[in-house]
C-alpha cells in the first residue's frame, strides 16, 4: 500500500497534488520527472519559509542547491503562482469539512512585513527591524483558505488594498471583510480616528467639524 511506503500524511499531499494539478499549473506544463518535482516543491517550501537554496538543500536529501535555485527563479518569473495557489485554495474550500470551519462568505485581511533587498522598488525601511522590507497584504477566508494576497508599501493606509483584494479574488462570494485599515470614522458621532504613521510618536483622534453635534461635548484631540 502507498501509505505504508511513504506514510499516511504524505499520501494526503500526493492526493492533493493529483486533484489540483498544482505542479503542472505552477510550471505551465507537466513535470519531466521526479527530480524536477523534488526541486520544484523544495523551491516553494524555501520561498514560503524565507530560506535560501543552500539552506533548503541541507533539509531535503538528494536535491542540490543549484537545482532549487533554478526552480525558485522559474516560479518567480513564469507568473503561474497565482493560478496554482487559487487551485489549491479552491480544492480546500470544496472539501466537506471546510463547511464546519466558517460560513464561506466572510474573510479577514491584514498586512505583514517581509525582509527584502533595498533594490526593490516597493522596499521601505521597516521601523521595528530598521531594515528594508516589503508588505504583503493577505485575505484569508473564514474557512482558512488564503484567497488573495498582494505586495504593498509599508506605513500606508490599507483600506484600498483591502477593497481591491475582496473584489479581485475569485474563490468565494464575500459579504463581510474584517480589516485593520489603520484608521476609521464614526460619521454619526463626528469622530474620525486616522493616525498618521510617519513622524508621529503617538496616533491622535480628530473631530470632524462639519459633523459636530451641539448635544455632544467636543472630543479631545489627544488619545
TrEMBL record:
Coiled coil: none annotated. Pfam families: DDE_Tnp_Tn3 (PF01526). This is Tn3 transposase DDE domain-containing protein. The keyword Amino-acid biosynthesis does not apply. One of its GO terms (biological process) is DNA transposition. GO terms for molecular function: transposase activity. InterPro entries: Tn3_Tnp_DDE_dom (IPR002513). It comes from the Bacteria. Keywords: Plasmid. Residues 195-223 are annotated as: Disordered. Residues 24-186 form the Tn3 transposase DDE domain. It comes from Novosphingobium resinovorum.
Amino acid at each position: 500500500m502507498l501509505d505504508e511506503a511513504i506514510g499516511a500524511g504524505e499520501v494526503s499531499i500526493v492526493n492533493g497534488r493529483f486533484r489540483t494539478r498544482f505542479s503542472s499549473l505552477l510550471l505551465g506544463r507537466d513535470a519531466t520527472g521526479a527530480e524536477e518535482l523534488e526541486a520544484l516543491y523544495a523551491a516553494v517550501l524555501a520561498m514560503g519559509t524565507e530560506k535560501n537554496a543552500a539552506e533548503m538543500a541541507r533539509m531535503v536529501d538528494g536535491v542540490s542547491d543549484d537545482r532549487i535555485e533554478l526552480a525558485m527563479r522559474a516560479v518567480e518569473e513564469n507568473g503561474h503562482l497565482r493560478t496554482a495557489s487559487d487551485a489549491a485554495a479552491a480544492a480546500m474550500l470544496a472539501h466537506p469539512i471546510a463547511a464546519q470551519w466558517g460560513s464561506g462568505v466572510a474573510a479577514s485581511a491584514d498586512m505583514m512585513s517581509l525582509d527584502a533587498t533595498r533594490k526593490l522598488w516597493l522596499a521601505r525601511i521597516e521601523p521595528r527591524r530598521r531594515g528594508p522590507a516589503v508588505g504583503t497584504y493577505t485575505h484569508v477566508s473564514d474557512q482558512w483558505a488564503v484567497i488573495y494576497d498582494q505586495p504593498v508599501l509599508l506605513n500606508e493606509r490599507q483600506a484600498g488594498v483591502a477593497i481591491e483584494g475582496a473584489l479581485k479574488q475569485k474563490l468565494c462570494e464575500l459579504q463581510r471583510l474584517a480589516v485593520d485599515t489603520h484608521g476609521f470614522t464614526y460619521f454619526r458621532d463626528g469622530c474620525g480616528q486616522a493616525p498618521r504613521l510617519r513622524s508621529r510618536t503617538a496616533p491622535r483622534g480628530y473631530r470632524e467639524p462639519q459633523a459636530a453635534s451641539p448635544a455632544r461635548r467636543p472630543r479631545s484631540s489627544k488619545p
